[in-house]
Fold Kef-type K+ transport system, membrane component.
Amino acid sequence: MISLGILLFAAKIFAELFARIKLPVVLGELVAGIIVGPFALGGLVMFQDKPIVNLDETVRTIGEMSAVVILFIAGLEITPREFLRGGASAFTVGAIGVAVPFFLGYFVFLQFGLAALESMLIATALTATSIAISVQVLTELGRIRAKEARLIIGAAIVDDILAIAVLSVVTTMVQTGNVTPAITDIVFLILKILGIFAALLVGAIFLIPRLLHVERLWKSRGSIEGIATAAFFAAAGIAAFVGLSPIVGAFAVGMAIASTRVIHRIEEYVDKLQIIFAPLFFAIIGAQVDLRGVNADVLLIAGALIAVAIGSKMVGCGLPALLFLKDRNKSMKVGIGMISRGEVGLIVAGVGVSSGALTGNIYTAIIIMVAATTIITPIWLKSAYRKDPPEPAAPEQQKTEE
């Protein structure tokens, strides 16, 4: 409880500070976590023989729950029809955005003299986008409904699903020591995971509106909001149980609610949830950054990782986006919005180091890469939008002004 109180308090203080100096609020929340985390100031004060900010299982679980809330809110911005309409573009950008970082990372780190399995683990850590960062920045800028924002979100969901598939394959390799599994096994696993997501999405679209529209059932205050919350946490749990990221299930329920009659009521409710869960999520992510093991070798590998992380998403996502958006400026924003790495990178680092497949230096370098891309993305994305001309007023607003 003390850890959560300190993290939330620090996140809001730094959010205020960064807002005043016109930097992304989410960046302030991340920096707050790094400063008061157990590897910095939070480790200097001891309470019951532990650091006063202690990232125990409870705190990490609340961080995961916060990510689920953020992605449910992102899902509310896209109806199923809009998601399917952008399906080809989202799938193309998301799929290439996984393939380019994976293969580029694998071949680059083979040249560093690393073993094939170690290079493969590093490549896997480079695949998945941490969409929560970009969603928060786009919301803060009021651009969440822009074409490129919708493509970022759709592609990031595809990206996340495929990255989980890659992670599943590579984790199996680590556990068995087999670095050359049959191609048919890999294809089957990826198709299975895509099928599970499709089933989750169809199930949510079919069930959730029917549940929420039975108005005679929901008379007491907060029932609709409570049912919606239960639904997205349940879907997140089901997604995790079948091997997907929990955020995929929450996003599917958000999309299902986006086309219901109660959408405005739910949006008012989740605005309040976001005030608490978003800063907590980013502060907890920041608090996991441990820079104590940094040396010259780590910095060299981390520098190469960061360069591949940025370049591979700009090429793997930005260029394919140009085919669909027909606008170089918007396509570049898609590339920028996909740069941030997060949970999957941290999971890969943990699996690798605990199994002995990754050395301590590589583990620290991956953590630095995740932290650096998480810090770079909001700054660069906000800067890219700052150069844009003001958006034209919506038709309703123009009529009102006339």
